[in-house]
Design a protein that fits this description.
elongated, about 150 residues, mainly alpha
Length: about 150
């Protein structure tokens, strides 16, 4: 990993994190449908004493989350690990960092923390499995095409 790669991953993480920190509140505000933009949870606003500090903390946490996600892609380049261990390590890295961000930003309501964690794990696992199935099928097709090209040349 070169310095250029590190800088590009940090930069991508910053952009994605900022976009995430603004997109999620926008979606939540639209779903609530009360015509008010809800940039952060009321709990985070009360802890941080004002909305500006709460928004800044949420942006920092989302940027940090996305930078971690950017670097978790390198787990797949560690060839001495088998594919199952890579999957588990990547999933845990992504989910634990998401859970930390969720706790700090209070992306759950009141006493529903464990329910929110259960739902988050379920959704996270479902999306992770869907992406893995998509990637497996994508690479099977690519390998099949490469094998066909090789067999045509011989």
């Amino acid at each position: 990993m070169t310095v250029k790669n590190i800088i590009s991953h940090v930069y991508a993480g910053i952009l994605k994190g900022f976009a995430l920190s603004m997109t999620i509140p926008l979606i939540i505000s639209v779903i609530k449908g009360d015509g008010i933009f809800h940039p952060v949870s009321p709990e985070l606003t009360s802890i941080m004493k004002n909305e500006i500090n709460a928004v800044l903390l949420q942006i920092v946490m989302c940027v940090l989350l996305e930078v971690i996600y950017e670097f978790s892609n390198y787990i797949w380049q560690i060839e001495r690990l088998n594919i199952i261990f890579q999957c588990i390590l990547d999933f845990l890295t992504r989910f634990i960092s998401f859970l930390g961000c969720m706790i700090v930003c209070h992306w759950y309501s009141g006493n529903n923390f464990f329910k929110t964690v259960y739902i988050s794990v379920s959704i996270f696992l479902l999306v992770y499995i869907l992406i893995a199935v998509f990637q497996i099928n994508f690479y099977r097709i690519k390998i099949k095409q490469i094998n066909e090209k090789i067999s045509k040349k011989t």
